[in-house]
Each structure stands twice: as structure tokens, then as C-alpha cells.
Write a structure and sequence with these properties.
With 263 residues, the chain is α/β, with parallel strands linked by helices. The protein folds into two domains: 148 residues, Rossmann fold; 108 residues, Rossmann fold. Helices cover 43% and strands 16% of the residues. The protein contains eleven helices and ten strands. The strands form two sheets. The protein has a six-stranded parallel β-sheet with strand order 4-3-1-2-9-10, with helices on both faces. A four-stranded parallel β-sheet has the order 6-5-7-8. The longest helix has 17 residues. The relative contact order is 0.20. Bound molecules: D-glutamic acid. D-glutamic acid binds next to helix 3.
Length: 263
């Protein structure tokens, strides 16, 4: 099989990365996608650098079974802690969500807010990537650990979610008008986030990463030659009773067959 016809491997700590799959299916629908979610070990966001890096390397190795032309780390936490280690050993190119998110944030004038898991915010990966592009940029970050469980619970339109979003967003000074959604789950909470901070420009790191993938395919990697919609294969390291319900929420379409793989 030619390189262009090989699948794109996408992995996340769980089901949240299906928001990135959703963006890829809209932008490059002809591509074959293999999604690997580490549901057995979710969440990554509360773990240490060493553990997240180790998990990222293991997920990259599992994806190699599919001989991907590209690996996308859809998880912000894994991108923040494991990207360089995986890039160093992977036989195919690997991209994460931080650089595309930072590029979009750096392009907007004014101070920027970054929200994410404890591990993503603690790594300062977004700050580093934004400042590399614009050393004068003022950046305010806030860890929002309660937002992942709220999104998984599907509380998208709920006063409890509004209260918690407001509490976190109030950590960012009022002059911040651009906020990076530095976590796979946050795009699903946009209605609530918008209610708490109307008029904000929200940068969806997953969506801008899909655009970065498109640019790579346009270049040396190449688009899949068939024009029919590519297949989506979903593999998880654990299958919980609610996976179809939670997964469909992030994918924004019904989640089909799911395979369980051993780590
Ligand atoms: N996927 C993670 C991220 O984007 C959120 C869930 C977790 O903590 O594992 O940072």
C-alpha cells in the first residue's frame, strides 16, 4: 500500500479525542482513521510527567500495528508531556495539539488565556509554544480539573456546569478576550463557557490541529487516493458500560463497533 493510502493514527487518554476525530472527518473525510483511547488509564491530566510520557510511548507503539502515515496526539496532556519522546522513536511523523493551538493563539492580538488539565497547565507547554512565536505575548493560564467529568457526564446545558465554568474563567483577568480550549473535552462545554464569558474568541485546539493535518497531507504525506469516506476504527484499552453514550457525545455521531486492545 502506498504511504498516502495508509491510515492516520489518533490517540487520546480516553474518549475526548473523538472531538478531534470529528474535526478530521469534516475536513479530510476520505482519510482512514484509527482511534486509540486509553480508557483503562484515564485521566492523564492528574498524573506526573514521567507516567504520562510512558503512557504516550505505549500508545504510539500500539498504533504502529496499523502502519500509520501520521500519528496525531489528540490529548493535550499527552502532547504537553509525551510528544518529544514519541517523536524521537516513531517511524512515522507525530504531531500534537499544542503547537497548532499555540500558533492560532499567537496570531490573535491581545492577551491570551489557556485552560486545560492540571498536568497541561503545569507543563507550561502552551506558554512556551506561544512565546516562541510572540515573545511579548501576555498569557494567563487556569487549570480546570472539574470540567472533564462534567463533559463526560453530558452536563452541557446545566446550571452546575455554568457555575463551575464561571469560577474557573474568573481566574482569567477581564482583559483576556481569547482563550485556548487546551483539553479534548472543552469544545463540548462551549455553550456554557460562552454564557460565562460572552464575546470571547475560543480557540479549539482540536479543530486547528485538523487543519494542521490537512496541511501535512497537502505536502509530503499525501491524501488517500480513494474518494469514498474513509473508515473509522475505534480501539479502547477498556470498554466501560457507558462508552457508546459518552463516545457519541464527543464524536457528534453514533459510535459504531469498538474493539478492546490490551496494553
Ligand atoms: N484528553 C485529556 C486532555 O486533552 C483530558 C482527559 C484526561 O485528563 O485524560 O488533556
Amino acid at each position: 500500500m502506498s504511504r498516502a493510502d495508509r491510515p492516520i493514527g489518533v490517540f487520546d487518554s480516553g474518549m475526548g479525542g473523538l472531538t478531534v476525530i470529528h474535526a478530521l472527518r469534516q475536513l479530510v473525510p476520505q482519510e482512514e482513521l484509527v482511534y486509540l483511547g486509553d480508557t483503562a488509564r484515564l485521566p492523564y491530566g492528574s498524573k506526573s510527567h514521567h507516567t504520562i510520557e510512558r503512557y504516550t510511548l505505549q500508545m504510539g507503539e500500539l498504533l504502529q500495528r496499523h502502519d500509520p502515515k501520521l500519528i496525531v496526539i489528540a490529548c493535550n496532556t499527552a502532547s504537553a508531556h509525551g510528544l518529544p519522546a514519541l517523536q524521537a522513536v516513531s517511524p512515522c511523523p507525530v504531531i500534537g495539539v499544542i503547537e497548532p493551538g499555540a500558533e492560532a493563539a499567537a496570531a490573535v492580538p491581545g492577551p491570551v488565556g489557556v485552560i486545560g488539565t492540571l498536568a497541561t497547565v503545569g507543563s507550561r507547554a502552551y506558554e512556551t509554544a506561544i512565546l516562541r512565536r510572540d515573545p511579548s505575548k501576555i498569557i494567563h493560564s487556569a487549570a480546570c480539573p472539574l470540567l472533564v467529568p462534567l463533559a463526560e457526564e453530558g452536563w452541557f446545558d446545566d446550571p452546575v456546569t455554568d457555575t463551575i465554568c464561571r469560577r474557573y474563567l474568573d481566574l482569567l483577568p477581564p482583559e483576556v478576550k481569547t482563550v485556548v480550549l487546551g483539553c479534548t473535552h472543552y469544545p463540548t462545554l462551549l455553550p456554557s463557557l460562552e454564557r460565562c464569558r460572552p464575546g470571547t474568541l475560543w480557540i479549539d485546539s482540536g479543530r486547528v490541529t485538523a487543519k494542521a493535518v490537512d496541511r501535512l497531507l497537502q505536502g509530503t504525506l499525501g491524501y488517500r487516493t480513494a474518494s469514498a469516506r474513509g473508515e473509522l476504527r475505534v480501539q479502547l484499552t477498556d470498554a466501560s458500560s457507558r462508552l457508546k453514550e459518552v463516545g457519541s457525545r464527543f464524536l457528534e455521531e453514533a459510535l459504531g463497533e469498538v474493539e478492546v486492545v490490551d496494553i
